[in-house]
Structures are given as structure tokens and as C-alpha cells.
Design brief:
mainly alpha; 14 helices
Length: 360
């Protein structure tokens, strides 16, 4: 573990964001008790704090090369990220909205929900529209995990293996991969947190800055959010934070859990919408073909992930570990708990697979 004055700002920053989001969650629960699921927001706040505390533990070595990369990472996460958000807000305030009161009046949560209902609720029985909307959502959820996998492959196979850059920069390919993942991942969730602070600021009448939300983000949210999610924290932020503690596990298991959460859930949802006829339970929107498709997709991505990233495992062990992850996904899907699947799937699928990984 490398816990020093370089990593401390990140820990403090993430704990502060976690506390801030918890205050937002309490306010949301008071104002929208039916739409807002407080348990999810509370867990997200805890995950922010955990991510901040865990950050130093991702660097087991302490030398000048590690500290150089830590310093660079800290500047990106704690300075560049917030500065980028500030510049966007200043641009919206001083350029886009300047002398345009009608534009500011149209940028409200009420106008957004009217637009949302016009585009989504009126199409509720349109199967092709539902499939297209769900596809947009699942692709959006796939990006964080896919990006992490690409960074890992690049750092180990290209940066270290092909370029031999480890001999120049003094850190291994695995350490460089962790540096990239943490820097980009932590900066990304900060940007998503800023988006949430802005779009949910309508709950505070005196400090409402919803009008500073750029139209491009607003249009994206219309396509990717369910209606109740307009009162929740962004799902991508939830997913990334749920994955952070799992980075300590073997990368094959981490990858399997990531792809189960995105591809497994996505296949289950889209197959259910497109071909589902028999619902279970009967009053549920979930279908039997959705459950089966999600299980098979989860099994498939797990087999692939373990085969690719854990070559030391034998075929029988890969099958057993993959089957355990897929079964956990199916159980979570069947239970339909109020707790977000983006929290439950990465945590419980990865821990279950790691358990079998350890004993086999």
C-alpha cells in the first residue's frame, strides 16, 4: 500500500463527494418518496467513500516511478476533472445562455420531463422503439467495462510486451494498467457525479443550476434513462463504483463480472422485449426467454473472459466458475430486488466466482 500526501487528496475528494451525494439522496427521498429508491443512493454514497479509501491500496509498491504516476493521476482526478466541469458551466452561463432568457426558461426539469414523456411514454407499446431505447441504454452501460478491458490489454500486451516501456518508466505493465484504469475511471465517475449534482439540483430552489446542463447531455439522458431514473443517480456511475473493489480480484473474474452486468443483463432485457411472451412472475415485465437468454449470455461471456485472462485454469474449473457467476446473475434477476442490479451483479457474481476460483 502507498498511502501518502499524493494519494490523500483523492481519498478526501471521494469521501466529500460521497457525503454530498448522500445529502442529495436524503433531499430526493423527502421530495419524491415514490420515485426515489433511497437504499440505492445510500449504497452509492458508501461506494464513493470506499473507493476513496481503497485508492492507495491499488499501489502495493512505493518508489519514485510509482509516485510520479500517482502525482500525475492525482492532478487529472482532482484538478483537471473538476476544472473541466467548471469550464463547461462557465461556457454555458457566459456564452450559451447569455442574453437568452427564453433558453434558460426552457431548461428546467419540468420541460425535460415533458419532452421525455412525449418521446417515451407515447411509444410505450411500440416494440421497435422499446428495443431501440433499451439498446441505447445497454450500450451506454457496456462502455465502462469494455474500456477497462481495452486499457488492460493495451498496457500489458502493447505498452509492456511490444514497446518494452516498462524499462523506461520503471513500472510493470500491470501497474501501468492499474494507473490508466484508476486515472480514467476515477475521473469519469467525477464527471458523472458533476452531471448528477447539476441535473438533480432542481431539488434545491435557491441553488438550482439545472439550466447549466448542456443540451447534448439532456438529449442523451432522454434516450438512456427510465422515467424514475430522473430522480436517481446515473447508472454508469453506479456501475463503475461497484466495480472498483473488484479490481483486487483476478482480472479474468473481474472481466467476467463486468460483462455479465452489461452484456448478460442487456441480452436478457432485449430478448425479453423482442421475443418474450410468458412472464414470470405473471405481473412482472420480465419473461422466461429473458431469464434463459441472460443466463446463457452470462455463461458465455464468463467462459470467454476466464479462457482469455486466466490461462492457468483448467477447462473444468473454467466451466464451474463461469456457471457459478451465471447462476448468481439468474438468481439476482429472478429476485427483482429494489437494490440496483448494477450494484448486485458485479459484486455478488465476482465474489461467488472468486470463491470457486480459490477452492478449486
Amino acid at each position: 500500500m502507498v498511502f501518502n500526501f499524493i494519494t490523500l487528496p483523492i481519498t478526501i475528494f471521494f469521501i466529500s463527494i460521497g457525503v454530498g451525494l448522500l445529502l442529495f439522496a436524503i433531499r430526493l427521498k423527502k421530495r419524491f418518496p415514490k420515485e426515489h429508491i433511497f437504499i440505492n443512493s445510500f449504497i452509492v454514497s458508501v461506494l464513493w467513500i470506499i473507493s476513496g479509501i481503497l485508492y492507495p491500496f491499488f499501489y502495493p509498491r512505493d518508489n519514485e516511478f510509482v509516485r510520479f504516476h500517482q502525482s500525475f493521476s492525482m492532478n487529472i482526478i482532482c484538478i483537471f476533472g473538476p476544472l473541466l466541469v467548471l469550464l463547461i458551466l462557465l461556457y454555458q452561463s457566459k456564452v450559451v445562455l447569455k442574453d437568452k432568457p427564453e433558453l434558460k426558461e426552457n431548461r428546467t426539469i419540468t420541460k425535460f420531463l415533458e419532452k421525455y414523456d412525449l418521446m417515451n411514454v407515447n411509444q410505450i407499446n411500440n416494440k421497435s422503439y422499446s428495443l431501440r431505447t433499451d439498446f441505447h441504454r445497454k450500450i451506454f452501460h457496456l462502455l465502462p467495462g469494455l474500456f477497462i478491458i481495452i486499457l488492460r490489454i493495451f498496457a500489458i500486451n502493447v505498452w509492456d510486451g511490444l514497446w518494452n516501456a516498462d524499462q523506461i518508466y520503471g513500472i510493470s505493465g500491470g501497474e501501468y494498467a492499474m494507473f490508466l484504469i484508476l486515472t480514467i475511471g476515477y475521473t469519469g465517475v467525477i464527471l458523472f457525479a458533476a452531471l448528477d449534482f447539476i441535473r438533480l439540483s432542481f431539488i434545491f430552489e435557491k441553488s438550482n443550476i439545472y439550466h447549466l446542463l448542456p443540451d447534448c447531455f439532456s438529449n442523451l439522458l432522454v434516450k438512456t434513462l427510465k422515467r424514475n431514473e430522473n430522480y436517481e443517480f446515473t447508472k454508469n456511475m453506479v456501475l463503475v463504483l461497484s466495480l472498483v473493489p473488484m479490481l483486487f480480484l483476478p482480472f479474468g473474474i473481474f472481466t467476467a463480472a463486468t460483462l455479465i452486468t452489461s452484456i448478460g443483463d442487456g441480452v436478457a432485457s432485449m430478448m425479453g422485449i423482442g421475443f418474450g411472451k410468458y412472464h414470470f412472475p405473471k405481473k412482472s415485465s420480465k419473461t422466461i426467454i429473458g431469464y434463459i437468454s441472460g443466463f446463457l449470455a452470462s455463461l458465455g461471456v464468463s467462459l470467454f473472459s476466464l479462457w482469455l485472462f486466466e490461462p492457468s485454469l483448467g477447462p473444468s474449473n473454467i466451466i464451474i466458475i463461469s456457471f457459478s457467476g451465471a447462476i448468481v446473475f439468474l438468481i439476482v434477476d429472478l429476485l427483482s430486488l429494489k437494490i440496483d442490479d448494477n450494484i448486485l451483479n458485479p459484486i455478488f457474481c465476482s465474489l461467488t466466482m472468486f470463491f470457486f476460483y480459490s477452492i478449486l
